[in-house]
Design brief:
By secondary structure, the chain is of the alpha+beta class. It has helices spanning about 5-10, 30-50, and strands at about 15, 55-65, 75-85, 85-95, 105-115.
Amino acid sequence: MDNEALAALTEPVIRTIAMPADTNPSGDIFGGWLMAQMDLAAGNAAARRARGRCATVAVERMVFHRPVSVGDEVSLYASILKVGRTSMTISVEAWRRSREGDERFKVTQGSFTFVAIDGHGRPRAVPAVDSGSERSDG
């Protein structure tokens, strides 16, 4: 499934509003804030799939396509790409919509790797699922 199809067919994992406190010195929304929102979305998908606590262990291929402005609605979509014994790779896309309009634009995408962990912070196995249920739609 291509990236545009992911956002068109799923509900966002997170939807939030970019606020003035989230800006960089240029007045655009700080990339670190957007990356944190993406990590939260990926973490939500990971915890649901692993049925428990997970930790971010890697972030790859972050691409910032367009800026986000104060007041924009930011929707984050997550899709599980791969599940290993203890880890999961999750694709996340962030899309923006201005307060006054309906047109949406993909602003950021990235790949996050999480490890399922037990109560002591040690890796644990990701439980098996029924076939066909690998994708997390929010």
